[in-house]
Give the backbone structure.
Amino acid sequence: MMNERDFDKIFALMEVSFPESERRTYMGQKELLSDQHYRLITETNNNNQIFAFLATWEFPMFRFVEHIAVDPIMRGSGVGGKMITKYMKESIKPILLEVEHPDTELAQRRIGFYERLGFHLNPFEYVQPPLQKGQDDLPLKIMSYPQLLTGEEFVFYKENLYRNVYKIKD
């Protein structure tokens, strides 16, 4: 089980790396630690300090990367790419992740980063349900590895995400 200090470091990294609309509250995030599908993978330095993490959901048919973040002082060093590449290499299931629409330079760069790793930007309309009370749906895109999704696969994965990650009861 993850200790309090490690969780606090991960949550602090989450706060500097993602806008409020793309993360849960502290308690909401902490509650995920008891979910059997949720897993945090961390990278630490020689002093055992966490400087990067990958938050993932492991399901029978696929894997979903919810967050990947690197300490701002370590960004651009290749750490994030190495983490996700290692994760992809150990995977026999498809991997999905959400990205912003490619209408800003930063979003385009992020999509390009994942495409260089082997992910594909799917054409389907998708929204991330609110992660905190009072927030709106967030229009995003789904990227998938190792290939583009069919319409049927997209619907299957989306329904699983909504039910298991976002706790939406249909």
Notes: The first helix runs from residue 4 to 17. The first strand starts at residue 38 and ends at 44. The mean pLDDT is 94.
